[in-house]
């Protein structure tokens, strides 16, 4: 996964796969989803990312599966 932030346009691009984009769906006027030909999520674009997604603070936490 890659996260790119374009400061000049306040746009965040989250890339989940390098597969070709087949279709882009608009969720609302600031959020777009890129899908492959099978409908799998390829990426997400967030316009006005500072206010829409609090992009100034990004963290990653992997939660391991607990075995009973």
3D architecture notes:
The N and C termini lie far apart (30 Å). Strands 1-2-5-4-3 form a five-stranded antiparallel sheet. Strand 3 (23-28) and strand 4 (31-35) form a beta hairpin. The mean pLDDT is 91. It has one helix at 49-53, and strands spanning 2-6, 11-15, 23-28, 31-35, 41-47. The chain is built from one helix and five strands. By secondary structure, it is mainly beta.
Summary, kept brief:
The protein is mainly β and 68 residues long.
SSE arrangement:
Blueprint: E1 2-6, E2 11-15, E3 23-28, E4 31-35, E5 41-47, H1 49-53
Antiparallel strand pairs: 1-2, 2-5, 3-4, 4-5
Sum up the structure in keywords.
68 residues, 7% helix, globular, single chain, 1 helix
In N-to-C order, the SSE pattern is EEEEEH
- Widest sheet: strand order? 1-2-5-4-3
Secondary structure tally: strands = 5
The pLDDT mean sits at 91
Instruction: Give the low-pLDDT segments.
Output: none
Radius of gyration, in Å, reads 14 Å
Residue share in helices? under 10%
User: What would you call the shape?
Assistant: globular
Number of helices: 1
Major β-sheet profile: 5 strands, antiparallel
Distance between the termini: 30 Å
Hey, roughly how much beta strand do the residues contain? Answer: 35-45%
Helix and strand content put the structural class at mainly beta
